[in-house]
């Protein structure tokens, strides 16, 4: 453990390694606010999630991990949701209609989680939604509701099953038997229902998805949409819903178009999108049309540009580089495909995606430099079952998105290693990202952040090598580093089973870090994440205090007495990471109630005009 003792500050020096990776952090440069909604997931409410453990265990994980954003619509199942009847048609299961109660979910969010946690549901733009389960295909009678290759056949509404399997039924069901029309005013009516009837605060409902993956509705929802739906016809549906939603709730944040995958970033239903007679890829077209309609109507139509990504890579070496797909203009992505048709003329040499960088350029081009539109990824999954690979991929995504001011990140699947990584970032990182550079960014990255006061710095180090430890030197500029050892926390060599139970019971390993001047050299294990929090010294002593200070009882559970015969002005309670828990104005000897402190070891820092005294306190 690290004890935060009185320290003196050495002159600034730089330690250069003979070999390995050099990282440089400057907390005064490139300051960018970190969106708390990077710490999100899909369908994470206990009882509605696929995460392991009992419901009670899930609540503890959810609260203790620091998760702040819950996308609860349900992906494809949200597109034909009927909020009045609490029904949804399931396109990946015969189009059958089942109960789906968003009212229950939003009440659960409101009643069970901190007001700092926000939920996101979605509007339905497809025009038809579930009406009745009376025309469901009898999947139980057919095969006891077991998955097989025919689950995507359109059998609800009286279809004829194709026993050979595959997506095509012998005869498609009639959607009129299980769907009903759903115009714009019907879907945005959910806002009135939740805000007025259920009295859900606006802060819980600020963000709304504008449906889900419309570019592939001719596949996922082909009982309603065929290939004849043009991009412009979809945009008209989008505008109608967006305008009515904004009229009902001016502070709403509209999140769209929730584009399905890399190919769809550039293509609308495999068709050409033209604007003023010129080819534009799908996302450029979407942004241009939103800009044009906003100018014509005076109504803001887009707040967060939202993508989905399901990469096909399965090798660990490629998975841990997937964060580079979004902004890195030097990265040749092995899975590049749709980008090769970026201009409408296939170019096999185009392999650099930097799709969110391109989106930022299109937003500026069509909406102007002060457009205010943020970026989000609301679905992503990787083909990894190795918790350490998954953890390093997720850490790289969070770190990259912190530095690039991405607003929302909600992975679709939740795998072993992700709770641990989320907890490490959400509970230990600060509120503002700052500059961190690496001599080998592909291999090792530093993701630093500072608090609002600028006196606490957290640095997350990620080693992406799948096989080798990395000797790493970290140089910190413009920040007073400690001479006492710092307790870092590390994730490495994660087992196959879930290890994150709570804030106090998890796989974080303590590691002692020693600074010389403003630098430290440490070895990072392969596929590891290491975080350290540094707090600048509060006071430099003018002369040492000779009188002893004692705390009793120690260890203690509640009321403690601090005894010293010298008067002091303040008493500060700091945890092992150097963070302030309490600060009291004080005089000689007084009792304090420390019962609210979590179990652990703390430093009591007593300051006077003559200097500083410190002592250790153990809370049981």
UniProtKB/TrEMBL annotation:
Gene3D superfamilies: Glycosidases, Golgi alpha-mannosidase II
Region forming the signal peptide: 1-20
Domain Glycoside hydrolase family 44 catalytic: 92-311
Domain of life: Bacteria
A Pfam family annotated for this UniProt entry: Glyco_hydro_44
Domain Secretion system C-terminal sorting: 551-618
SUPFAM superfamilies assigned: (Trans)glycosidases (SSF51445)
Keywords: Signal
Protein name stated in the entry: Glycoside hydrolase family 44
């Amino acid at each position: 453990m690290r004890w935060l003792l009185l320290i003196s500050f050495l002159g600034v020096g730089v330690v250069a390694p003979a070999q390995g990776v050099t990282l440089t952090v400057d907390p005064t440069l490139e300051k960018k606010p970190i969106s708390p909604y990077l710490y999100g997931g899909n369908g994470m409410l206990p009882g509605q999630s696929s995460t392991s453990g009992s419901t009670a265990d899930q609540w503890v994980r959810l609260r203790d991990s620091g998760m702040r954003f819950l996308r609860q619509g349900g992906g494809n199942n949200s597109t034909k949701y009927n909020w009045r009847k609490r029904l949804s048609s399931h396109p990946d299961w015969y189009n059958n209609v089942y109960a789906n109660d968003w009212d229950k979910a939003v009440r659960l969010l409101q009643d069970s989680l901190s007001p700092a946690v926000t939920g996101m549901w979605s509007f339905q733009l497809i025009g038809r939604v579930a009406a009745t389960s009376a025309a469901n295909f009898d999947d139980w009678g057919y095969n006891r509701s077991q998955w097989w290759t025919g689950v995507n056949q359109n059998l609800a509404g009286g279809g004829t099953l194709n026993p050979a399997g595959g997506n095509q039924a012998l005869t498609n069901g009639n959607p009129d038997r299980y769907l009903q029309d759903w115009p714009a005013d019907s879907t945005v009516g959910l806002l009135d229902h939740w805000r007025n009837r259920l009295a859900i605060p606006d802060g819980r409902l600020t963000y709304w998805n504008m449906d889900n993956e419309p570019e592939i509705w001719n596949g996922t929802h082909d009982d309603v949409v065929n290939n004849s739906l043009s991009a412009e016809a979809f945009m008209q549906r989008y505008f109608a819903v967006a305008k009515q939603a904004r009229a009902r709730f001016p502070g709403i944040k509209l999140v769209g178009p929730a584009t399905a995958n890399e190919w769809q970033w550039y293509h609308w239903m495999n068709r050409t999108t033209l604007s003023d007679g010129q080819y534009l890829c799908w996302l450029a077209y979407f942004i241009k049309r939103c800009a044009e309609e906003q100018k014509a109507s005076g109504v803001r139509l887009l707040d967060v540009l939202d993508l989905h990504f399901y990469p096909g890579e399965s090798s660990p070496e490629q998975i841990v580089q997937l964060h580079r797909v979004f902004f890195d203009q030097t990265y040749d992505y092995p899975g590049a495909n749709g980008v090769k048709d970026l201009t409408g003329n296939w170019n096999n040499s185009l392999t650099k995606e930097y799709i969110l960088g391109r989106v930022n350029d299109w937003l500026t081009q069509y909406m102007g430099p002060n457009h205010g539109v943020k970026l989000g990824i609301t679905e992503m999954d990787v083909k990894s079952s190795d918790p350490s690979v998954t953890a390093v991929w997720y850490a790289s995504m969070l770190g990259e998105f912190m530095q690039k001011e991405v607003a929302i990140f909600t992975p679709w699947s939740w795998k072993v290693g992700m709770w641990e990584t989320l907890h490490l970032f959400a509970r230990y990182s600060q509120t503002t990202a700052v500059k961190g550079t690496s001599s080998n960014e592909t291999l090792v990255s530093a993701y630093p952040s500072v608090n609002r006061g600028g006196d606490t710095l957290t640095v997350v180090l990620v080693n992406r090598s799948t096989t080798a430890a990395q000797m790493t030197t970290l140089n910190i500029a413009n920040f007073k580093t400690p001479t006492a050892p710092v307790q870092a926390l590390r994730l490495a060599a994660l087992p196959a089973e879930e290890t994150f139970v709570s804030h106090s019971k998890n796989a974080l390993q303590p590691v002692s870090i020693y600074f010389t001047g403003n630098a430290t050299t440490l070895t990072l294990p392969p596929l590891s994440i290491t975080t350290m929090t540094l707090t600048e010294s509060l006071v430099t002593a003018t002369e040492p205090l000779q009188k002893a200070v004692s705390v009793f009882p120690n260890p203690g559970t509640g009321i403690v007495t601090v005894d010293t015969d010298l008067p002091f002005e303040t008493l500060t309670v700091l945890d092992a990471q150097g963070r302030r828990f309490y600060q009291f104005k004080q005089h000689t000897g007084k009792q304090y109630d420390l019962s609210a402190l979590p179990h652990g070891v703390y430093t009591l820092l007593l300051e006077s005009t003559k200097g500083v005294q410190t002592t250790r306190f153990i809370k049981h």
